[in-house]
UniProtKB/TrEMBL annotation:
It holds the Pfam family FG-GAP_3. One of its GO terms (molecular function) is electron transfer activity. PANTHER family: ATP_GTP-BINDING PROTEIN, SENSOR KINASE-RELATED. This is Cytochrome c domain-containing protein. It comes from Algoriphagus iocasae.
Length: 514
């Protein structure tokens, strides 16, 4: 590389170390370009160049020294194809059946450069994880809600994978890891009214009337690159519920929504194929003989979508949360002819742990805002992170959003938004699957009552038992006009040993307004 090309190359890297993402005009150098260059850069400059080539550059203070040095940096080095003597005898990519291309087959960084990059992170990282910022005090007890823990006589695993409340009947539909779907009757203490066998664990459901529903099953719930997820229709017959596959070979799907994008009168399907090392955000367009797959984003970590007219042109667009490495919220803007243009709305650093989002008007200004929870802690960096929590990004028009409010909450992973107290503004329920077990009160389920615009009072339920909440859903269980909340339990121990206690899969927060 010539002297002048090297100067230009370093100048580009300098831009990436200074400018906010929204101001960047030129794409970062690729890893192949970096590998071919003879770089005379310090550790920080190397981090700015190499990390920005794939995702938002994480700052050293996001993780402690041990987590960087023992977990994250070795994995990143291997992904760039630099294997050292210390790696032999450890688990290698070939041992994990990792698809080709995830780990480079040749080094993309020179060892001397890697050592400088590694030293930059280790020298600037804290010795211990940074503590949470000060936050509003949590009150015990949630006024306006009655806690109900239904009792069951049989011993069964507490492994809830899905919860939905039927809008017409108030029945609670519960998906279970052991290939089952249970219908619980709110008029009979939530006892099992019916059960339906499924091919794998249910993860999403949409009713098509009282006698038909669509069910998304995940395939393998544990991290996997296999394509065994299925979207099926179930129809009621005299002999029970009869399944019929609609779309198969899905990569660990976790969410689906439908809308007729091509105007043929048949709903198309948007499926978040979360995957593991590979995955897709996919649009399945209805055809006379089935569906045609159109990949909107070829990347793992698709978590959830919402359908809305984001740009006000009369066509419905797609808003998607991506949660692996290149984390963020992305819009897919419809040109009216079934073509979609991707636009980045928000980007997050790769340890952010995005988990869920909603698109709702939080300040009654007529514009929908973004509510995001982040707290996924099941990957390499399983430490307490002070940037985990719940955030509101307010709509500034033209698909620009600014962070307005943040409440720190370790492991925040689930979200429901609604006017639960019916005072005219939106409140929040947030759960955590990865809380700090030493915090008092335990902060694994919090209610945020909005008292004034973006002034929230946090409350924790007064619970007598300890459970691990994985999912929750809102809805009207009693059909009395207010919204209740149901929280589902997932106990990993129940995967490996026979339960010794009666089934206790749910907690109900019954709204007592009406």
């Amino acid at each position: 590389m010539s002297y002048f090309r090297l100067i230009a190359f370093i100048f580009i890297i300098g831009l990436f170390s200074c400018n906010p993402i929204s101001e960047r005009k030129q794409p970062p150098p690729s890893l192949n370009q970096l590998a071919a260059a003879d770089l005379n850069l310090n550790g920080e400059q190397l981090a700015n160049a190499y990390c920005a080539a794939c995702h938002v550059k994480p700052e050293p203070d996001l993780l402690d020294q041990a987590t960087w040095g023992e977990k994250v940096l070795p994995e990143m080095r291997k992904r760039m194809g630099l294997f050292l003597d210390e790696d032999f005898g450890t688990t290698m990519p070939i041992d994990m059946d990792v698809p080709k291309g995830i780990y480079s087959e040749f080094p993309l960084i020179k060892r001397k450069d890697w050592e400088k990059l590694e030293a930059y992170y280790l020298e600037n990282a804290p010795s211990k994880p940074n503590p949470q910022a000060s936050k509003a005090k949590i009150e015990i007890g949630i006024s306006g809600f009655e806690l109900i823990r239904p009792e069951y006589s049989e011993n069964y695993a507490d492994l809830v994978t899905m919860l939905r409340i039927h809008p017409q009947t108030g029945e609670l539909w519960l998906g279970h890891r052991f290939k089952s779907l249970f219908i619980l009757d709110p008029k009979n203490d939530f006892q099992v009214k019916d059960s339906i066998s499924t091919d794998t664990a249910p993860i999403d459901l949409h009713w098509k009337g009282n006698n038909e529903f669509e069910l998304l099953t995940m395939g393998l719930m544990d991290p996997s690159n296999d394509s065994v997820g299925v979207l099926s229709t179930f129809k009621k017959s005299d002999s029970g519920w009869v399944p019929s596959p609609l779309i198969g070979d899905l990569k660990r799907p976790v969410n689906n929504e439908s809308y007729d994008f091509n105007g043929d009168g048949i709903p198309d399907q948007i499926i978040s194929e979360f995957g593991n090392h590979i995955g897709d955000l996919s649009l399945f367009l209805s055809k006379s003989n089935g569906f045609e797959k159109k990949v909107l984003k070829n990347a793992p970590g698709a978590r959830r979508v919402e359908i809305d007219d984001l740009d006000g042109d009369g066509d419905m667009d797609i808003l998607a949360l991506m949660t692996q490495a290149n984390e963020g919220l992305f819009a897919f803007l419809n040109d009216g002819e079934g073509n979609f243009r991707e636009k980045t709305i928000l980007r997050f650093q790769p340890a952010f742990g995005s988990s869920d989002f909603r698109f709702e008007d939080m300040n009654a200004d007529g514009r929908k805002d973004l509510i995001v929870v982040n707290g996924d802690n099941a990957d390499l960096s399983q430490i307490l992170k002070n940037y985990h929590g719940v955030r509101v990004f307010t709509n500034q028009d033209d698909l620009e959003f600014e962070e307005e409010w943040f409440y720190p909450m370790y492991g925040a992973s689930g979200l429901e938004v609604g006017d639960f107290d019916q005072d005219g503004d939106q409140d929040l329920f947030v759960l955590s699957f990865f809380p700090d077990v030493n915090q008092k009160p335990k902060q694994d389920l919090l209610f945020f009552r909005q008292d004034k615009e973006f002034q929230f009072s946090p409350f924790a339920p007064e619970l007598g038992s300890d459970s691990h909440w994985l999912i929750m859903t809102k809805g009207d269980l009693e059909l009395d006009g207010d919204e209740d909340l149901v929280v589902g339990v997932f106990e990993f121990d129940d995967l490996y040993s026979k339960p010794s206690a009666p089934w206790s899969p749910i907690l109900i927060l019954k709204n007592t307004l009406k």
